[in-house]
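## retry 2 of 3
previous attempt timed out at serialization; input unchanged, resubmitting
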Amino acid sequence: MTDAAGSDPLPRLSPAAADLLRRIEERSALIGVVGLGYVGMPLALAAMQAGFRVLGFDINGPRVVQINRGETHIRHIPAAAVAAAVATGRFEATAAFERLDEPDAVLICVPTPLTRHREPDLSFVAGTARAIAARLRRSQLVVLESTTYPGTTEEVVRPILEEGGLKSGVDFFLAYSPEREDPGNTDFAAPAIPKVVGADGAEALRLAEALYGSWAARTVLVSSPATAEAVKLTENIFRAVNIALVNELKVVFDAMNIDVWEVIEAAKTKPFGFMPFYPGPGLGGHCIPIDPFYLTWKAREFEIPTRFIELAGEINTRMPLFVVDRLAAAIDRRLGKGLSGAAVLLLGLAYKKNIDDTRESPALRLIELIEARGATVAYHDPFVPEIPPTREHARLAGRRSVPLDPEVIGRFDAVVIVTDHDGVDYRLVVEHAKIVVDTRNACARAGLTSDTIVKA
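## retry succeeded, writing output
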């Protein structure tokens, strides 16, 4: 099913576009996916399951070897799915980027982080575009999926691809289709999520529509790559702003001795005009903490302030500080001691429940803030046995998860629930912890009450 951006009749395709369209429709096209992470891996599997041959590219050599052995490197993607894909002979991973001339369509799924100055870091996108440009051939379709500011596809990617003399819309085809992955969400796998598509020209749009329409339940066509880029930012900014709102309400209602979670549960019974969002210890993941700032940066080019977005960022960034203050107050009030010298156990390191993804996790920031106040911190996370290397929290790399049993829990002055994984025995925690600081309302949802539970 397709939602079109306009009602113009379908264009007559050039011979090159018509040939590529035929191969897409016949499933004889080879699909290349650059970046086999949380976005690229599900995309590669969806394309393979739709009947295409898929060549996955990744700079991580051990990851490539692992995938080709039929093993998974992402916890919520079953190893059986990877093994089945490899066994078909239609899916292969490679670190040999000189093979980029082989695919008929190349889908770019690489990170778009922020610099230390909160400005867009397009080094991965630009580097991938240069690698493709070095091998670009006529009739290839190139699609950027990485989240970015409006204009990236046409202002950054296209000039790089055209450096060799080939022209977009004439010799090759260029489009943008934002990723919409939600790691760990079993209700919405890649084929079930509608794909928004914007392209550089009518032929590129037709080709990208045909490609994504072969596995996505629905394609939504928009008028330009910049519009498609704006769609993705709008989705994540909407979430960031509403999370900031309930985070601010949490602080206000806490001062009034009102439970914000009880308020939200009652408010969401209204069948119209309200959508529930929930507070937390801070934002995590690769999207919501980062993507809004891609738009604020681009808006400065047009001398337009983005006060609402920036305010939301400030509120969400302050949430770990609020949690630490609540933790310190609880230890002081209940144990008669300061946070300095206390032993704290963080429960959950992943940025959201039931996955192993620690990107931008507020738990990492909490560890640093708590230790800066003189406490010692350990963590337990059944999905994250060891803290991976990160740019922002390099010194934490290598720390390992501790067991969760009565003896271990009893050694700590407080347990802070940062990530509400479903498989954790919260009753065990409440029964043996001196203090439980719950940032996710996990105890209440588990039906647990105790004077030792403090919501934050």
